[in-house]
Write a structure and sequence with these properties.
The longest helix has 32 residues, at 230-261. β9 (185-186) and β10 form a beta hairpin. The protein is built from nine helices and ten strands. The mean pLDDT is 94. With 270 residues, it is an alpha/beta fold. The strands form three sheets. The chain has a five-stranded parallel sheet. Strands 3-4-7 form a three-stranded mixed sheet. A two-stranded antiparallel sheet has the order 9-10. The chain starts with a strand and ends in a 9-residue tail after the last helix. It has two domains: 2-152, Alpha/beta knot (3-Layer(aba) Sandwich), CATH 3.40.1280; 170-258, Trp Operon Repressor, Chain A, CATH 1.10.1270. Bound molecules: adenine (ADE). Adenine (ADE) is lined by residues 86-88, 112, 131-133, 135-137, 139-140, 143.
């Protein structure tokens, strides 16, 4: 896969792209990343890439000419290659989107900066707009790196274990189960017995249940769309019943203590 990245700050990419798995992906030829400095496409003496907004207001806006010139120079726009603008206004980046992008042969990522990008960039060259979360970064560079990382590890051959992406959190719509490695006991905390049993079916069942438990505790909304078996559903009903029983016990304990103690032990004497 080839990814062209358009940025005013190509130096930001040096570290993350040249270490560990992203480096290996490039060395083995699975991934090629080409950085383009938007400033190289400015035509005035001062290499101006931004300007003040029409209509007033604070901040600076990235000018359309250098970005459009850069993209048109590098990307054949009639070939259906996704040209993605990174911005907090885009569709949310998820594992599903990562898989969708990993299936393409080529991508272009445009990193916005400052207050935003002149709207005509969207109208002329952008085909998709992606946000990596509901918060605002100083620019699209870190977002581009997040996308490159999540996509690269899905490319065939990049991870040592070819099944690894299928087992990840979010891949099957659930969070992953807990992991353990040696030693069997650390600071008094033992690895769950079942993982040492060598019994594959029991281990698989334990992992599935812990994955369901984690998702139920941390991201219950994922359960609404995750593919679940009858056995999964029965286990979730059991979790819900346990939680209900726990809550009722807690409420009873509070009412037994009476109204003065109900605020908890931290309450100062009156
Ligand atoms: N640029 C600034 N904030 C961003 C975000 N949340 N996602 C993608 N690009 C951004």
């Amino acid at each position: 896969m080839r990814i062209d990245i358009f940025t005013l700050f190509p130096g930001m990419f040096g570290g993350p792209l040249n270490e560990s798995i992203l480096r290996r992906a490039q060395e083995m030829g699975a991934l090629s990343i080409v950085l383009h400095n938007i400033r190289d496409y400015t035509t005035d003496r001062h290499h101006t890439a931004d300007d003040t907004p029409y209509g007033g207001g604070g901040g600076m806006i990235l000018k359309p000419e250098p970005i459009v010139a850069a993209v048109e120079d590098v990307i054949p726009l009639d070939k259906g290659i996704p040209v993605i603008l990174l911005s907090p206004q885009g569709r949310l980046f998820t594992q599903t989107v990562a898989r969708e992008l990993a299936a393409r042969e080529r991508l272009a990522l445009i990193c916005g900066h400052y207050e935003g990008v002149d709207e005509r960039v969207r109208q002329l060259v952008v085909t998709d707009e992606i946000s990596i979360g509901d918060y605002v970064l100083t620019g699209g560079e870190l977002a581009a790196m997040v996308i490159v990382d999540a996509v690269a590890r899905l490319l065939p051959g990049v991870l040592g274990d070819p099944d690894a992406p299928d087992k990840d959190s979010h891949s099957g719509g659930l969070l992953e189960h807990p992991h353990y490695t040696r030693p069997p006991v650390f600071r008094g905390l033992a690895v769950p017995e079942v993982l040492l049993s060598g019994h594959e079916a029991r281990i698989a069942r334990w992992r599935r249940r812990e994955s369901l438990r984690r998702t139920w505790e941390r991201r219950p909304e994922l359960l609404l769309t995750a593919p679940l078996t009858e056995e999964d559903r029965a286990f979730l009903v059991k979790l819900a019943e346990e939680e209900l029983a726990r809550r009722m016990r807690d409420e009873e304990a509070v009412s037994d203590r009476g109204p003065r103690d109900a605020a908890g032990p931290g309450r100062p004497p009156t």
